[in-house]
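Lab notebook: predicted structure, single chain.

Context: the supervisor wants predicted structures on file for every construct in the current expression panel, including those that have not yet been purified. This is the next one on the list. No modifications to the sequence; it matches the entry in the shared construct table.
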Amino acid sequence: MRGLDGKRVVVAGGATGIGAATAERLAAEGSRVVVGDINEAGAAATVDRITSAGGTAIATRFDLGEEASVQALIRVAVDAYGGIDALANVGADLSPETLGRDGDLLEMDTAVWERTLRVNLIGYAHSIRAALPHFQAQGAGAIVNTSSGAAFVGEAVRPAYAASKAGINTLTRHVARRFGPENIRCNGVMPGLVMSETALRTTSEEFQAQMRAGLTLTRLGRPDDLASAICFLLSEDTSWVNGQVWNIDGGGSFRE
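Prediction complete. Output recorded below exactly as produced.
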């Protein structure tokens, strides 16, 4: 891909799954990567794989739910690499304590909603806000936010999660409209079911079969499928793409 070699990229949520695959793909394309995650050991493992393959990356612990921690993540890139060129927001609270308790409205736990929005949506706003002054100063920047097909499917459960992802889509369009004239691009991806480490642990064979049946392609997603799309949207190959949120879901959704 054009324009990723030498770029300074922060992956917010890079310990496992889509985030880890994205960090590794960016490094393979020549980017210098900061891998941030609340899972410090997982972030370090991602960096070990990158550096063992000859890439450049550093790991740092941060929490998307804490504004000061998010600001510190961006400072790591600035201190280590002299600036930041791109941001990939991938993290979300998928813990049993949060996502696992996100039932329907009759079962609503306000604390689950507050935590979900704090991490999944407000955390993205904080990371973008922290990166924006650096993008403005250099006259360019690229952002990709990770949303979800849950934003528009209308599931019977997980309304807090779906609302947070719908909010990410709106945030993406706001940033694109407001800062596009300054050559700052913001796009998003909406994955279908991706068989990450978490999905492999938490989804049954029956559920996986149901999801496959709704696809026009014949397999479920892999983290690399999203990593390639995220890197493409961060690259110069999509320099005229802004404010878009792409379904990356094996052809399960057709949207204009």
